[in-house]
Amino acid sequence: MDKRFGRDYFAHARVGLFSHYTYPTYAEDKGTNYGGTHYSAEKPRTAVSAEEAAALFDGEKFASAAHDLGAEYVVFTAAHAGFNLLFPSAVMKETGCTWKCAERSDAIDKLIRGLKPFGIPLVLYLPPNDAHDIPDGDLSKMGWTGTEGRMTFLKRLIREIYDRYGKDIAGFWFDQGGPTEDVCDFVRSCNPDAVIFVNTGVTANTNKHPLSDFLVSEYYGSIEGCDSDTLPVHYSQVNRQIGSWYAVGNKAPTDARNLYRYTVRTVSVENQFNAGIAWSCGPYLDQTWEEGVRDLLRDLGSLLKSHEGIYGTVPGKSYVTKPDSTLEKSDWGVSTESPDGKTVYLHVLNRPENGILTLPAPIDGKRFTKAFWGDSSLSLDQTADGVRIGFPTDSDPIDTVIRLTAE
Fold this sequence. Notes:
There is one protein chain. It contains 10 helices and 17 strands. It is α/β, with parallel strands linked by helices. The longest helix has 20 residues, at about 145-165.
């Protein structure tokens, strides 16, 4: 993996795609039946084996979906339910659990090859403490008994992953409280530039795990049926579903406008240096997507790419968006800016009625010299009391981006 895809890259990433694509485990001895990705909307059966799930996976199609979204990174399952691996694993076969990995097909390699032409880095999801859906006999064979046994197995597997894929793996997204410190040290010994995400809970987290490079909030609530302006934003890496975690028959919960406005608000949040928002969904085994989801990725990506002030920016310091805030009808919007602070982007999400955007004085004391909407110059008047900008009559109802030049 190109060294530019290190921790600084992810700290400044704004948009990602997070996907569970999984073969299930039925742990009858524990009374659990942890489902997995369905074959299609019409055929709700799960894969018959890890091999089938890996063999059917189309890395080029998935990478195309990530590219259409405008994703700057992908988080994808190396293993999830029952710790079934989507590649042929010598480590897993050594345990005797030959059914817990693909026999010949390699979904991870296919995804790496699909993503490379787009320059999108891959982070692998692993659940290092997932014992609730693994049969006791499998746990014993894997040595998955107690923390030391789990971590020993995990290090063997990580070594195999790096031997197999090299630095084409940008890092790991560890679920369920994450691994121990020696495992994270081992990851870094394999790849010093590796990024490490450690998730400590399903909903919003406020304290970064000490072994994690980033603050992570896996779920942070549903967007279904909501005006996204009413949803709180956060400065952690946020994953919100726009389908199912893995395709099981849901459909797109909203439209691209709703997702776009939430994305803009998220990337503007104070101290959002935690990889932004990763929209979460995935394909069926037949490589179609849940109803409306594939189109939603494309439509959202089109909006993200057609508006300036999102990619390559940092949260605005002149007009600050606070964590857990919502967007009221009386609020004008949010701001981002260039890393050097010389260009400020005002994302006007609620248009002023009188044709004049009136703002308070910038809290960082910036002095603005010019205002533009696209190539059009706008009137600008800044005093000690605030800023007044002539608002374009043919403005964008989704997000009118006004670009300010600062001294």
